[in-house]
Amino acid sequence: MEELILNLTNGALDNLNYGWIVLFMAIESSFIPFPSEVVMIPAAYMAAETGEMTYPMIILSGTLGALLGALVNYVLSLTLGRAVIYAFANSRLGHMCLIDAGKVQQAEEYFDRHGVVSTLIGRMIPAIRQLISIPAGLARMHLGTFVLCTCIGAAIWNCILTGIGYAFHSVMAKDELIGIVSHYSHIIGIAAIACVAGFLGYIIYNGLKKH
Questions:
Q1: What total of structural domains would you count in the chain?
Q2: Rounded-to-integer distance, Cα 41 and Cα 22, Å
Q3: DSSP code of 16?
Protein backbone atom coordinates (compact mmCIF):
# COMPACT_ATOMS: atom_id res chain seq x y z
CA MET A 1 0.00 0.00 0.00
CA GLU A 2 2.82 2.41 0.85
CA GLU A 3 4.44 1.82 -2.55
CA LEU A 4 1.10 2.48 -4.25
CA ILE A 5 0.68 5.72 -2.29
CA LEU A 6 4.24 6.71 -3.21
CA ASN A 7 3.56 6.21 -6.93
CA LEU A 8 0.23 8.03 -6.77
CA THR A 9 1.76 10.97 -4.90
CA ASN A 10 4.57 11.22 -7.42
CA GLY A 11 2.12 11.11 -10.31
CA ALA A 12 -0.20 13.58 -8.64
CA LEU A 13 2.53 16.17 -8.31
CA ASP A 14 3.19 15.96 -12.05
CA ASN A 15 -0.35 15.69 -13.44
CA LEU A 16 -2.82 16.86 -10.80
CA ASN A 17 -5.67 19.14 -11.86
CA TYR A 18 -9.17 19.91 -10.62
CA GLY A 19 -10.70 16.94 -12.43
CA TRP A 20 -8.26 14.48 -10.87
CA ILE A 21 -8.89 16.00 -7.45
CA VAL A 22 -12.64 15.40 -7.84
CA LEU A 23 -12.05 11.82 -9.00
CA PHE A 24 -9.52 10.89 -6.30
CA MET A 25 -11.59 12.43 -3.51
CA ALA A 26 -14.70 10.62 -4.77
CA ILE A 27 -12.75 7.36 -4.57
CA GLU A 28 -11.50 8.30 -1.08
CA SER A 29 -15.07 8.84 0.15
CA SER A 30 -16.44 5.61 -1.30
CA PHE A 31 -15.77 2.00 -0.32
CA ILE A 32 -12.29 2.05 -1.87
CA PRO A 33 -9.55 2.85 0.69
CA PHE A 34 -7.50 5.85 -0.41
CA PRO A 35 -6.00 8.57 1.83
CA SER A 36 -7.20 12.11 1.11
CA GLU A 37 -3.82 13.40 2.33
CA VAL A 38 -2.23 12.01 -0.85
CA VAL A 39 -4.51 14.24 -2.97
CA MET A 40 -5.07 17.51 -1.14
CA ILE A 41 -1.59 18.09 0.26
CA PRO A 42 0.21 17.65 -3.10
CA ALA A 43 -2.46 19.77 -4.81
CA ALA A 44 -1.87 22.66 -2.40
CA TYR A 45 1.88 22.20 -2.72
CA MET A 46 1.69 22.44 -6.51
CA ALA A 47 -0.59 25.48 -6.30
CA ALA A 48 2.15 27.24 -4.35
CA GLU A 49 4.82 25.87 -6.68
CA THR A 50 3.30 26.66 -10.09
CA GLY A 51 0.31 28.92 -9.51
CA GLU A 52 -1.71 26.90 -12.04
CA MET A 53 -4.39 26.05 -9.47
CA THR A 54 -5.99 28.20 -6.79
CA TYR A 55 -6.63 27.19 -3.18
CA PRO A 56 -10.40 27.92 -3.24
CA MET A 57 -10.85 25.78 -6.35
CA ILE A 58 -8.74 22.98 -4.84
CA ILE A 59 -10.94 22.97 -1.74
CA LEU A 60 -14.12 23.17 -3.84
CA SER A 61 -12.99 20.30 -6.08
CA GLY A 62 -12.02 18.17 -3.09
CA THR A 63 -15.35 18.84 -1.40
CA LEU A 64 -17.31 18.00 -4.56
CA GLY A 65 -15.42 14.75 -4.94
CA ALA A 66 -15.98 13.86 -1.28
CA LEU A 67 -19.70 14.50 -1.68
CA LEU A 68 -19.95 12.32 -4.79
CA GLY A 69 -18.17 9.43 -3.08
CA ALA A 70 -20.26 9.83 0.06
CA LEU A 71 -23.46 9.80 -2.00
CA VAL A 72 -22.43 6.43 -3.48
CA ASN A 73 -22.22 4.92 0.00
CA TYR A 74 -25.41 6.69 1.12
CA VAL A 75 -27.52 5.55 -1.86
CA LEU A 76 -26.22 1.97 -1.76
CA SER A 77 -26.92 1.71 1.98
CA LEU A 78 -30.35 3.30 1.57
CA THR A 79 -31.42 0.98 -1.25
CA LEU A 80 -29.68 -2.29 -0.37
CA GLY A 81 -30.28 -2.33 3.38
CA ARG A 82 -28.29 -3.50 6.38
CA ALA A 83 -28.17 -7.22 5.54
CA VAL A 84 -26.60 -6.68 2.12
CA ILE A 85 -24.15 -4.06 3.39
CA TYR A 86 -22.91 -6.35 6.17
CA ALA A 87 -22.72 -9.26 3.76
CA PHE A 88 -20.51 -7.16 1.48
CA ALA A 89 -18.38 -6.07 4.45
CA ASN A 90 -17.77 -9.73 5.32
CA SER A 91 -17.08 -10.77 1.73
CA ARG A 92 -13.67 -11.17 0.11
CA LEU A 93 -14.29 -8.05 -1.98
CA GLY A 94 -15.14 -6.08 1.14
CA HIS A 95 -11.94 -7.23 2.80
CA MET A 96 -10.01 -6.20 -0.30
CA CYS A 97 -11.46 -2.72 0.25
CA LEU A 98 -10.26 -2.93 3.88
CA ILE A 99 -13.84 -3.09 5.13
CA ASP A 100 -15.29 -5.59 7.56
CA ALA A 101 -18.42 -5.91 9.67
CA GLY A 102 -16.60 -4.52 12.71
CA LYS A 103 -15.74 -1.27 10.94
CA VAL A 104 -19.28 -0.84 9.65
CA GLN A 105 -20.63 -1.51 13.13
CA GLN A 106 -18.18 1.02 14.57
CA ALA A 107 -19.48 3.63 12.13
CA GLU A 108 -23.08 2.77 13.03
CA GLU A 109 -22.38 3.09 16.76
CA TYR A 110 -20.69 6.44 16.19
CA PHE A 111 -23.73 7.60 14.21
CA ASP A 112 -26.09 6.39 16.93
CA ARG A 113 -24.15 8.23 19.64
CA HIS A 114 -23.81 11.55 17.86
CA GLY A 115 -26.83 11.64 15.57
CA VAL A 116 -26.94 13.92 12.54
CA VAL A 117 -23.83 15.86 13.55
CA SER A 118 -21.80 12.65 13.22
CA THR A 119 -22.00 13.01 9.43
CA LEU A 120 -20.21 16.34 9.76
CA ILE A 121 -17.67 15.46 12.45
CA GLY A 122 -17.10 11.95 11.12
CA ARG A 123 -15.68 13.40 7.90
CA MET A 124 -12.57 14.37 9.89
CA ILE A 125 -11.94 11.12 11.78
CA PRO A 126 -9.70 8.34 10.37
CA ALA A 127 -11.39 4.95 9.93
CA ILE A 128 -14.80 6.67 10.26
CA ARG A 129 -14.50 9.20 7.43
CA GLN A 130 -15.02 6.77 4.55
CA LEU A 131 -17.78 4.78 6.26
CA ILE A 132 -19.89 7.42 8.02
CA SER A 133 -22.17 7.68 4.97
CA ILE A 134 -23.25 4.05 5.41
CA PRO A 135 -25.14 4.44 8.71
CA ALA A 136 -26.62 7.70 7.40
CA GLY A 137 -28.10 5.75 4.50
CA LEU A 138 -29.22 2.86 6.69
CA ALA A 139 -30.95 5.34 9.03
CA ARG A 140 -32.59 7.03 6.02
CA MET A 141 -31.18 10.41 6.99
CA HIS A 142 -32.75 13.28 5.06
CA LEU A 143 -30.82 13.75 1.82
CA GLY A 144 -30.58 17.54 2.11
CA THR A 145 -29.25 17.32 5.65
CA PHE A 146 -26.79 14.62 4.62
CA VAL A 147 -25.47 16.69 1.70
CA LEU A 148 -25.12 19.82 3.87
CA CYS A 149 -23.29 18.06 6.70
CA THR A 150 -21.05 16.14 4.31
CA CYS A 151 -20.07 19.29 2.42
CA ILE A 152 -19.32 21.25 5.59
CA GLY A 153 -17.26 18.45 7.15
CA ALA A 154 -15.39 17.72 3.91
CA ALA A 155 -14.69 21.42 3.31
CA ILE A 156 -13.22 21.85 6.80
CA TRP A 157 -11.03 18.77 6.35
CA ASN A 158 -9.89 19.91 2.90
CA CYS A 159 -9.03 23.36 4.24
CA ILE A 160 -6.80 21.73 6.86
CA LEU A 161 -5.00 19.54 4.32
CA THR A 162 -4.63 22.46 1.91
CA GLY A 163 -3.06 24.52 4.68
CA ILE A 164 -0.63 21.68 5.42
CA GLY A 165 0.33 21.48 1.74
CA TYR A 166 0.95 25.21 1.63
CA ALA A 167 3.08 25.02 4.79
CA PHE A 168 5.08 22.10 3.40
CA HIS A 169 5.95 24.13 0.31
CA SER A 170 7.84 26.67 2.39
CA VAL A 171 9.97 24.11 4.25
CA MET A 172 10.72 21.22 1.89
CA ALA A 173 11.46 20.28 -1.70
CA LYS A 174 9.18 18.23 -3.93
CA ASP A 175 11.15 14.99 -3.47
CA GLU A 176 10.92 15.31 0.31
CA LEU A 177 7.17 15.86 0.13
CA ILE A 178 6.68 12.63 -1.82
CA GLY A 179 8.46 10.58 0.82
CA ILE A 180 6.76 12.22 3.78
CA VAL A 181 3.19 12.11 2.44
CA SER A 182 3.46 8.52 1.21
CA HIS A 183 4.97 7.22 4.43
CA TYR A 184 3.18 9.35 7.01
CA SER A 185 -0.20 10.05 5.40
CA HIS A 186 -2.14 8.48 8.29
CA ILE A 187 -0.05 10.27 10.92
CA ILE A 188 -0.52 13.57 9.08
CA GLY A 189 -4.27 13.03 9.26
CA ILE A 190 -4.16 12.38 12.99
CA ALA A 191 -1.97 15.45 13.54
CA ALA A 192 -4.44 17.58 11.61
CA ILE A 193 -7.30 16.32 13.78
CA ALA A 194 -5.26 17.08 16.91
CA CYS A 195 -4.72 20.66 15.69
CA VAL A 196 -8.44 21.12 15.08
CA ALA A 197 -9.30 19.65 18.48
CA GLY A 198 -6.75 21.92 20.17
CA PHE A 199 -8.10 24.99 18.41
CA LEU A 200 -11.71 24.16 19.30
CA GLY A 201 -10.68 23.44 22.89
CA TYR A 202 -8.96 26.82 23.08
CA ILE A 203 -12.09 28.60 21.80
CA ILE A 204 -14.32 26.74 24.27
CA TYR A 205 -11.90 27.47 27.13
CA ASN A 206 -11.86 31.19 26.35
CA GLY A 207 -15.65 31.25 26.07
CA LEU A 208 -16.10 29.55 29.46
CA LYS A 209 -13.44 31.75 31.03
CA LYS A 210 -15.16 34.94 29.88
CA HIS A 211 -18.52 33.60 31.01
A1: 1
A2: 14
A3: -
**For the segment 93-113, what is each residue's pLDDT rounded down to a tens digit?**
777 666 777 777 777 777 777
pLDDT digits (tens, 9 = 90+) for 5-19: 556 656 655 677 898
- How many other CB atoms are found less than 10 A from the CB of residue 88? 17
CA distances from 37 to 8, 110, 114, 122 (A): 11, 23, 25, 16
Contacts of 113 (CB under 8 A, 6+ apart): none
Helix (H, G, I), strand (E, B) or coil at 51: coil
**Range(s) of the domain holding residue 97:** 2-210
Picking from 70, 110, 73, the residue whose alpha carbon sits closest to that of residue 89 is: 73
How far is it, in rounded angstroms, from Cα 185 to Cα 166?
16
Of 111, 183, 181, the closest CA to residue 149 belongs to 111
